[in-house]
Amino acid sequence: MSITSVPNVTIADVEAAAEVLAGVAMRTPLVENSALNERSGGRVLLKAETLQRTGSFKFRGAYNKITSLPAQLRTQGILAWSSGNHAQGVAEAARLLGAPATIVMPRDAPAIKIDNTRRLGAEVILYDRYNESREEIGARIAHERGLAIVKPYDDPLVIAGQGTVGLEIDEQCQRIGAENDILLVNCSGGGLAAGCATAIAARSPATEIYAVEPQYHDDMARSLAAGERQTNPPDAPPTLCDALMARAPGEITFPIARELLSGGLSVSDAEVKHAVRYAYEVLKLVVEPGGAASLAAVLSGRIECRGKTVCLILSGGNISPGLLSEILADP
Amino acid sequence: MSITSVPNVTIADVEAAAEVLAGVAMRTPLVENSALNERSGGRVLLKAETLQRTGSFKFRGAYNKITSLPAQLRTQGILAWSSGNHAQGVAEAARLLGAPATIVMPRDAPAIKIDNTRRLGAEVILYDRYNESREEIGARIAHERGLAIVKPYDDPLVIAGQGTVGLEIDEQCQRIGAENDILLVNCSGGGLAAGCATAIAARSPATEIYAVEPQYHDDMARSLAAGERQTNPPDAPPTLCDALMARAPGEITFPIARELLSGGLSVSDAEVKHAVRYAYEVLKLVVEPGGAASLAAVLSGRIECRGKTVCLILSGGNISPGLLSEILADP
Asked: ipTM for the complex?
């Protein structure tokens, strides 16, 4: 076995990303809801990245990465693969930076995510999530057309960009005098988790950080428990959380998560549905299933909040009208 | 004709209300959305009172009023009439202050508003909006049971409470270095408009303030134009904006509005529907029709935003799942 060295991400990288994103990314609010506090017995602070450009945190990492590319590469164009939120984040960042964007998306991604990506000016290439490899398709097209790849999570600049969410959480907690006991981060490939953990570990070392994943897609939780990267079985049942279906933690994100996270939690689709409905009914926020996983962990009691301050990230709000209506109609 | 003197509301009253509400009312975020800015050609800042306790600004005025009552009166109980948002705000304030609440609500108020009011512990008495007077029913029951009335808008303490929304808008604008050219306020009886106008006129006198009402329910706009209170015709067609159906501006709210407002705008139900859908799709916020009137004015171009900073209040988010699904299904 050979030992490969993996790039690390430091708090300085996250701070540099925050400077790049200042005045470009929205500074999303840290929302508090009295009914949720009463119900949980703690103080729950919700970082509403649903209110970020394109409705998810993904814009941050994409913009931080694309600005770093030499102008000539940007002009030639960029390519990304994504189930939808990274697609939109990349398309928006590329649009602002004048770079043509090509996005490889699964054919069964939510129509709202495909439509929005096209509306932002990107060329969308669809593939079959179950029989084709997006990495292979993406790499082939990028090579043919000379495009720079913007990976969804396994890139230090992407991780640093997502980490600015954690930086803002810390600053916002300080402003309201809240000491953050626990941070919950929705987790797919681990870009948001690794980035936020880097920020929070540096700024608020006493905070415990947990990744939250859908049931049967808990590769990060199992990887953290095992101490090495685990993969979800290819026959894992699909989840409503289309944004949280990575097969395994990233090569770069995992070592960071292993060092800084306290563990992983998983939530069922039924718990996620309830959280999406609760977000609509009580919080008055539109949250997609994958964006509501941490909220589901709080509402279902999978994490004990009593007497604690718990921050969580509502990481995405791109839910199709049809699915939202279906969830709201189901009592 | 006799000249009656009407109580005024001053900036000191609003500041006092802000002290009463500190740590009790949520400090709701001033949200900005890049897509909305691009579309409008201006800078649009959205005060998300949808994220307030009970999903609307109404809690502020109710709490400010009920805390002012002598303890004995509070213990005996309070009574309010409301189409739904004031009902919930009063029920929540009464619950926190240990006062039994009785609320008179129209039988055709959205079920979500009636249910939420009951869930907050209030006794709900239903009446027929089209054939009965809620003021008469309310006054009779209050007299019989010895209850203190918390009016929906025509009370200086209620107006001052709602005015804290304006105070926060001003503080939040200052923090981000935004000079507020225009403030749009959704208007029914005028409590929010009068309160916010009092705050903004004192703190940011160059800001123009407009009331926004549903078409055919534009009593405030017509009253401002005429210089005296006008009433909507009893046969005015109903509007989707169930929260904005006052028959006329209040006796106390109108003189304040006349002095401080630049005028009134009205929006159609179709424009409001579009705004509710836009709030879901782009802003990722749940907004009820009446809460979206000012947003509708911006989206429909009824107010010119180009090159300007325009603040508006998303005043309520209590929309039933059925109605939201219907609006989202309608392309």
From this structure: 0.95
Same domain, yes or no, for B207 and B286?
yes
Q: How far apart are CA B169 and CA B173, in angstroms?
A: 6
CA of A285 to nearest chain B CA: how many angstroms apart? Answer: 5
If asked whether residues A50 and A71 sit together in one domain, one would say no
Say whether B29 and A31 touch across the interface (CB within 8 A). Answer: yes
- Residue B90 near residue B78, CB atoms below 8 Å: yes
The region that residue A70 occupies, defined by phi over 0 for left and psi between -120 and 50 for alpha, beta otherwise, is beta
Among the candidates B149, B171, B193, a domain finishes at B149
pLDDT band at A330 (very low <50, low <70, confident <90, very high): confident
Confirm whether pTM is higher than 0.90: yes
User: Is B172 a domain residue?
Assistant: yes
pLDDT at A3: 55
For residue B328, give the nearest of A35, A281, A321 by CB distance: A321
Instruction: Residue A84: count other Cβ atoms within 10 Å of its Cβ.
Output: 28
Whether residues A264 and A316 share a domain: the answer is yes
Evaluate if residue B6 carries a pLDDT over 90.
no
Last residue of a domain, one of B149, B171, B201: B149
pLDDT tens-digit readout, A6-17: 889 999 999 999
Residues A244 and A164 in one domain: yes
- pLDDT tens-digit readout, B121-160: 999 999 998 888 888 999 999 999 999 999 999 999 999 9
How far, in Å, are A63, A128, A130 from residue A134 at the CA level? Answer: 21, 8, 10
> Using CB atoms, which residue from A51, A283, A325 is nearest to B325?
A325
Residue A208 lies in a domain: yes
For residue A331, what is the nearest residue in chain B, using CA coordinates?
B321
The total of structural domains in chain B comes to 2
Of B33, B35, B328, the CB nearest to A325: B328
How far is B87 from chain A, CA to nearest CA, in Å? 16
Judge if A163 and A262 occupy the same domain: yes
- Please check the confidence at residue A207 and state whether its pLDDT lies above 50: yes
Q: Are residues B127 and B182 in the same domain?
A: no
Cβ neighbours of B3 (radius 10 Å): 5
Measured between beta carbons, which residues in chain A are less than 8 angstroms from residue B287?
284
**For residue B190, how many other CB atoms are within 10 A of its CB?**
30
The residue of chain A nearest to residue B323, with distances taken between CA atoms, is A325
Start-to-end CA span in chain A (Å): 53
Comparing CB atoms, the residue among B31, B325, B328 nearest residue A51 is: B31
pLDDT tens digits for range A310-320: 999 999 999 99
* CB < 8 Å to A95, chain B: none
Q: What is the mean pLDDT of residues A218-230?
A: 97
Q: What is the CATH number of the domain that holds B274?
A: 3.40.50.1100
Q: Which residues of B touch A (CB under 8 A)?
A: 26, 29, 31-35, 48, 50-51, 53, 55, 112, 280-281, 283-287, 317, 321, 324-325, 328-329
CA B189 to chain centroid: 8
